[in-house]
Amino acid sequence: MAWPLRVFMVSAIGIGAVIAAGSVARFSYAPMPDEGDLLNPARYPLSTAYDILGRRVARDEAEQLEATPEGRGVLSAERGAVAIDEALVRRGREAFYRETFGNEVFLSDVMGMLEGGVTPYEVARAIALLGGRGTNNLQVRMARDVTVGDRVWKTGELVPTGLDVPRNSAFILGIRTFYDRGRLRMGITCALCHAAVDPASGKVVEGAPNTDLNAGLLMALASNATAYFMHGSADPSAHPGDAARQVITEGGAKAALPDRARFEAAAKVEVASWPAGSFDSSADRETNPTSIPSSFSAYAEPYSWSGRAGIGPFKGLSALNNNVHAANSDTTQQTQAARTLFGLDPQVYLGTVLQGAAAGPLRYDPASGKRPTEVLDAADPTPGTPGLNSYAVLPSFPATNYMTDNGLLASVPGEPANYANNAMSAFQNLLHAPAAAVEAGQVGRGRAVFERVGCAGCHSGPALSNNRVVPVEEIGTQPSRARSTVRMEARLVPPAIFATDTPFPLPPNPKLVPIPLEGTALKQVQLAWAHAGTAGGYKVQNLVGLAWSAPYLHDSGVAVGPDPAKHLGVPGTLDAGIAPDPANSLRALVDRGLRAKVVAANAASQKARTARVTGEGHAYWADSAAGVSAEEQADLIAYLLSINGLTEQVPVP
């Protein structure tokens, strides 16, 4: 049977089953590739037995501790210990590909990801037309006209989604599809951003960033991009609405919502400015997306571009995993903190998010006489907890505690609180990039250049990172993202999590485990969060998998395509549908002449300026002015591209 026909037969069978089951049918599916479908199936050996709030305990040390009552206490769940074994890693891989923590409700019913220009039918049609070929950039036909700024996406026009479909698959990597009693929804998993299809083989590279995922454009084409307005620079007060459309504020007064259509148009422009392969995870009311990082995470702590995920289990990796689902995939959970974070009354904030909701039960209409929080509570699939996702709620909610933005831990009913985040950390720490085809002699010469020009001063250790946060004044990159968490200092509490065996849903009075933080560690965390009077900073990136993570720097600004004379900056590469070339982009990272051209190209683009993409900073050079010949520069780049795993034998995860 031909591939398109087979896909449509599968769809027809599914539709028939739904009709037969009627309105009571409920099912979901997300793909998880088999080992034979992976380009990097090999992993580091599992050699760490426990993680205790970020401290790695190797197996020989664990055996000694397990021999005494005191040692067993150290390894107990009450101390925050996570036992690491193959079962945990298996659960982590499954969660990485399939766990949404309930975000399908926000993405579908509030943001309207399936109600805008990109519809389920057109996505299915696009996959069928692949004929079994894999793709790293699914081209989907627009179902209706959508205006984004001065650009009209016309019906029938192809959208470069950046969505990945493995070879011989009928499903998108990292998307879980739900059918719930007549309602179709889509949720996202970690694999959407942190796994990629190799365009040459159609196989999946676990841990590689999805460098062409057009997340911002897909949000702009949704029906309610306003639901993400706090992640951009669109200002509700600049779009006053009908005075009759008022909400009752927390204090009992009345306030008008912003004009729905005009504010939606403004919000679309902000998210659509994100470069492909970027995402704005900072709810600071400034548009400042960052490149999607890889999940080649062993010894790459602290995590996130600023290093703000730096404490707690797995040295902050679990905090990073949690932030995606406890903060970024459900903006309704920020309602109680809206005044502190956004300067908005909570009811005005939530009313703004919900007035354009795609699903009727969650759409707020001031004429109803209800408050927005009442509308949310009535339709909430997780009653008794903030927002729409599945959260274990710390007593300190909605305060920040350096482990979590808001006191929420994305959790799955039936397993311990935060367990899936920890399991994903164990899995991710075992991943490394596919081997690169680079000439060995060139690699050796390039390593010598790396040492000679001083790269190893910061890029040292097993993952070629010294695991430090560098002040933004020193690194010189665009400062907006470095200060994005400054407002959270006003609602800060000492860091703590639940004991690692705490069941979810939570029992009464669950045990809390404090996370020690003092001295140099505290100062580094404060710098990463732009607290204690600092302006923030950026972490020293690890160098594993650079061949898979172009463009470079936190803002994706160092991008050069196959032709360095024409394909410059984000405008000349990602915005033009041209993949950045890793070697040429790395040359722009270390060559001040080429970098100047890249920075100029970014500065000339209004879209790049909206997203605060510059390509500036990290002024550490290996060019002719630094005494490095063209041949030596080429050797250095070859060495950097060859790094596909840890450079030392150390316990992992």
TrEMBL record:
Q: Which SUPFAM superfamilies match?
A: Cytochrome c (SSF46626)
Residue ranges of domain Cytochrome c in the record? 441-644
Q: Which PROSITE patterns match?
A: CYTC
Keyword terms, alphabetized: Heme, Iron, Metal-binding, Oxidoreductase, Signal
Task: Check the record and name the InterPro entries matching this protein.
Answer: Cyt_c-like_dom, Cyt_c-like_dom_sf, Cytochrome_c_Peroxidase/MauG
What is the protein's name according to its record? Answer: Cytochrome C oxidase Cbb3
Protein species of origin? Methylorubrum rhodesianum
